[in-house]
């Protein structure tokens, strides 16, 4: 990990590499139509004997003025089965993030976020047998406004997914932070 502050600009980079024995990975095995062009997927967990997961995270935060903060980030992930050299499914190879936050007053803040997930590898849910893997991508934009009632209490509201982008059909939300789907909780906790 590397971090540097240059005036109003904070930069950090993290390079990681993990060799994992007995990685538990979820895999789509079949799906059932539930109406409206949607499918309920059924998954099995498989033991990946040896996995290699490496990646790079780059982040920048610029305090452009007392009121305006701009942030950008890029993540690259290479997750493979080390025995077969095949990519592990249910993971995006690239993620790009942009955020702009503007203080409207001492206790009000408006924030806009965009996140692009690219090369997300998984299986098509309407496939019944021998489902091939394929990559998809998605861009989401969120807007919110927050108000600090006190130093400890903040109220916020917003619109996630402003342009109502549907998750690509092969997205998996495996609650491990590696899949598609939403990861923003309904509440925020600060310590």
Task: Please provide a written account of the structure.
The two termini are 23 Å apart. The model is unreliable at 174-186 (pLDDT under 50). Strands 1, 2, 3, 4, 5, 6, 7, 8 and 9 form a 9-stranded antiparallel beta sheet that branches. A hairpin with a 4-residue loop joins strand 4 and strand 5. The chain has strands at 2-6, 9-35, 38-63, 68-81, 86-87, 91-105, 108-123, 133-148, 154-159. The relative contact order is 0.15. The chain is mainly β and 191 residues long.
Q: Name the helix and strand elements from N-terminus to C-terminus, one letter apiece.
A: EEEEEEEEE
Number of helices: 0
Which percent range describes the beta-strand content?
over 45%
Largest sheet composition: 9 strands, antiparallel
Features of this protein?
191 residues; mainly beta; nine-stranded antiparallel β-sheet; 0% helix; globular
Task: Give a brief rundown of this model.
The protein has 191 residues and is an all-beta fold. About 7% of the residues have low confidence.
Please give the structural blueprint.
Layout: E1 2-6, E2 9-35, E3 38-63, E4 68-81, E5 86-87, E6 91-105, E7 108-123, E8 133-148, E9 154-159
Antiparallel strand pairs: 1-2, 2-3, 3-4, 4-5, 4-6, 6-7, 7-8, 8-9
């Amino acid at each position: 990990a590397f971090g540097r502050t240059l005036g109003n600009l904070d930069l950090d980079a993290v390079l990681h590499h993990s060799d994992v024995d007995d990685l538990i990975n979820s895999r789509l095995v079949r799906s059932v139509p539930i109406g409206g062009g949607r499918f309920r997927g059924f998954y099995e967990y498989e033991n990946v004997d040896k996995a290699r997961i490496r990646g790079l995270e780059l982040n920048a935060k610029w305090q452009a003025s007392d009121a305006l903060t701009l942030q950008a980030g890029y993540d690259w992930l290479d997750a493979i089965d080390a025995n077969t050299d095949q990519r592990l499914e249910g993971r995006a190879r690239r993620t790009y993030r942009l955020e702009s936050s503007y203080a409207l007053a001492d206790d009000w803040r408006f924030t806009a976020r965009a996140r692009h997930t690219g090369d997300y590898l998984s299986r098509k849910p309407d496939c019944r047998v021998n489902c091939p893997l394929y990559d998809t991508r998605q861009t989401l934009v969120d807007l919110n406004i927050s108000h600090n009632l006190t130093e400890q209490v903040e109220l916020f509201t917003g619109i996630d997914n402003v342009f109502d982008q549907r998750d690509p059909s092969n997205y998996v939300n495996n609650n491990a932070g590696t899949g598609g789907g939403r990861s923003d909780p309904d509440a925020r906790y600060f310590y």
